[in-house]
Amino acid sequence: MEKTTKALEPIDASGLKDLVKKAETTPENYKIVSKAVTINKGGFLNDTLVRDLTPVVIDEPCHLFGTNSTPNPSEHVLASLGACLAVGYMANATAMEIPLEELRLELEGDMDISPVWGVAKTPGEQVAGFTEIRVNAFIKGDFTPEQEATMQEKVLRWSPVANTMRNNVNLAALLHVSEGKEDKVLEPIDGAGLKDLVQKAEATPENYRVVSKAVTINKGGFLNDTFVRDLNPVVIDEPCHLFGTNSTPNPSEHVLASLGACLAVGYMANATDIGIPLEELRLELEGDMDISPVWGVAKTPEEQVAGFTEIRVKAYITGNLTAEQEKIMQEKVLRWSPVANTIRNNVNLVAHLNLA
């Protein structure tokens, strides 16, 4: 008896065709502004609110002064990329009318964390954020070699998150500081532990070059789980009008959540370093993007830019910082944020597609 494998649930093919037609006819209607608000809950634990959805919770591992409840900001970036590429593969396979039996991506990225969010003394030429990300995509489906090559080209060319990492995105950030009363402060991180980490990172920076890893598994349609270390999966979806179930923010919104959490970590670390307790730490983020390429399915002018082109951040901090301390902290946080630099750096992205 011939063995049959259950195909992954596809997205709405007729709906995709309708979206493509509209995007090609009136691309100006598909320029959007994504928004998010990150609220620090104490230490390095941050909630990011997107639309009316459950907050995206982002933490740090215990050895980096978190509680290890969720992947850290940079690992969330890998999850965003894995989910975005998975969405692109599913969309293009649907357009080709080819059912998929498996869609899985393995990701790893190189990063040097020796700057310690700007607290450590770091050479000016040092690069923060991911410098290279490698992706291996594993797909089961009946593609011809030509279809395989076409799909891979379209997915990589038009992935919003992949292009956000390659675009040298303009990041505009403002810091607003209010005087604190110090009656109720956010829980700080371990100040002595931070000093010890900084001392080690300055003495042996080569020990702080890390490789972050993630595995994204498509659950059908545009719903994707990404596994990092031994933690609960990061679930990333799309809104209903983009063929998802609207259960979580989409990949690009997760990028904003990653950035908000990473900047919040930087502010908290630098405030701890100078001994200033914070009473509030909140960031408002918005990013400009054109989604008319429809993950490479629509016919799009080659000069079109996919991904975020500009991200604006307003950070609100309540704490007793002098004007000089405020200026130095803002400079350090923006200069050494791993996620901010991943977005600005034109990261080398190496991707391979493996068909079965």
Characterization of the model:
The protein has 356 residues and is an alpha+beta fold. Helices cover 32% and strands 27% of the residues. The chain has a six-stranded mixed sheet, covered by helices on one side. A six-stranded mixed sheet has the order 9-8-7-4-5-12, covered by helices on one side. InterPro entries: KH_dom-like_a/b (IPR015946), OsmC/Ohr_fam (IPR003718), OsmC/Ohr_hydroprdx_reductase (IPR052924), OsmC/Ohrsf (IPR036102). This is Putative OsmC-like protein.
Keywords:
single chain; 356 residues; alpha+beta; GMP Synthetase, Chain A, domain 3; 6-stranded mixed β-sheet; 8 helices; 12 strands; 32% helix; globular; KH_dom-like_a/b; OsmC/Ohr_fam; OsmC/Ohr_hydroprdx_reductase; Putative OsmC-like protein
Helix content: 25-40%
Q: For the largest sheet, list the strands in their spatial order.
A: 3-2-1-10-11-6
Number of helices: 8
CA(first)-CA(last) distance: 20 Å
The shape, in one word, is globular
Strand content: 25-35%
Task: Quickly name the level 1 CATH class.
Answer: Alpha Beta
Mean pLDDT: 95
Largest sheet: 6 strands, mixed
CATH superfamily assignment?
A: K homology (KH) domain
Run of helices and strands: HEEEHEEHHEHEEEHEEHHE
Radius of gyration: 21 Å
| CATH-derived topology | GMP Synthetase, Chain A, domain 3
Structural class: alpha+beta
User: What is the number of E strands?
Assistant: 12
Using the 3D structure, state the CATH architecture: 2-Layer Sandwich
Which residues sit in consecutive blocks of at least 5 with pLDDT less than 50?
A: none
**Overall domain count:** 1
Protein name: Putative OsmC-like protein
Pfam families: OsmC
